[in-house]
Design a protein that fits this description.
Layout: H1 6-18, E1 35-41, H2 55-58, E2 61-68, E3 73-81, E4 89-91, E5 93-98, E6 113-114, E7 123-125, E8 130-132, E9 136-140, E10 145-152, E11 161-162, E12 169-173, E13 186-188, E14 191-192, E15 194-201, E16 206-212, H3 214-217, H4 229-239, E17 245-251, H5 266-275, E18 280-286, H6 289-298
Parallel strand pairs: 16-17, 16-18
Antiparallel strand pairs: 1-15, 2-10, 2-12, 3-8, 3-9, 3-15, 4-7, 5-6, 5-10, 11-14, 12-13
Length: 299
């Protein structure tokens, strides 16, 4: 039986590491792989009657929604939601592209990428579920505006939405997933059936999720200005050279802590809106204004 002292064993390990094949990093030198990190996202809820789209608007129509991502990268995937649906939601097709800017339906047509789901162009999302697209290559910088287009064959049985988008969305009859623009489209400042965008980020990248009520959601912010406090935080981080830190806004106007308000209560949605997102390292929680306000009004 051969025995080695601890120093000798350590020396042997060093020598073996030094004998790695040329061009092959040792285990100690191996770099961690890039991982998926949430770059943009929003909280989901059932829209009130005043925020629902009419069933006829959905029929054989393309919905284009513009969002500002907080992390840059070469590769991304899109998260679609039927969280509050009562029946399966069929997406006949979807795409993502670099937007020409907030408040515009125009995209850089050369950047348009068709999205697939397990290799298929269409997908049926079960009631209560969210689905990720297959990853696509789309180089983009932190703070870029991206446009996600969805072709719907029919209206959702029950719509899943974020009414406080404060960003203009566009709906046009027909299939226009790769169209450079949607002239004549109807417009509204809400998001539908869209939950998030993840980016394949460099090692060390992570995301902060801000969850709360209308203060976080951006009450009082003009549409298409991207001036919510979370937008300003993301901008300040980038200007400070912290491009590896993303910021997600999961606010819901009228939200409360333990009881449903205009949307689901924070305790009920914390897992979906914070914990289930990839790469989340911190959460900023700002809640309670509506709990106290409703208590006072009801007393």
């Amino acid at each position: 039986m051969v025995r080695q002292s601890i120093p000798a064993a350590a020396l042997a390990a060093v020598l073996l590491a030094g004998c790695a094949a040329p061009g092959q990093p040792s285990r100690q030198e191996a770099q961690p792989a890039a991982s998926w990190v949430a770059s943009w996202g929003t909280a989901q809820m059932v829209p009130g009657a005043e925020h629902e789209l009419a069933p006829a608007q959905w029929r054989d129509a393309t919905l284009r929604q513009v969002v500002r991502v907080s992390l840059g990268g070469e590769r991304l995937r899109v998260r679609f939601s039927n969280a509050f649906g009562t029946e399966p939601l069929v997406l006949a097709g979807a795409s993502v592209a670099v937007s020409r800017g907030p408040g515009r339906s125009a995209i850089d047509a050369a950047s348009s990428r068709a999205l697939r789901f397990g290799g298929a162009a269409s997908v049926s999302i079960p009631a209560g579920a969210e689905y990720l697209s297959d990853p696509v290559d789309l180089p983009h910088a932190a703070g870029s505006d991206l446009a996600v287009s969805i072709h719907f064959p029919a209206a959702p049985a029950r719509q899943t939405s974020h009414p406080g988008a404060r960003a203009t969305s566009f709906m046009a009859p027909g299939q226009h997933l790769a169209a450079a623009e949607l002239p004549g489209a109807s417009t509204f400042t809400r998001w539908y059936q869209l939950a998030g965008i993840d980016v394949q980020a460099a090692p060390g990248a992570h995301t902060v999720v801000a969850i709360g009520d209308s203060i976080t959601d951006g009450y009082g912010v003009a549409p298409d200005t991207n001036l919510r406090w979370t937008d300003v935080l993301a901008l300040r981080l980038r200007r400070a050279g912290m491009d590896e830190v993303g910021v997600i806004n999961a606010g819901i106007g009228g939200g409360r802590l333990l009881r449903d308000g205009l949307g689901p209560n924070l305790a009920a949605r914390f897992e979906r809106d914070v914990l289930a997102r990839p790469g989340v390292s911190h959460a900023i929680v700002l809640i309670g204004v509506n709990d106290f306000g409703n208590l006072h009004r009801n007393s």
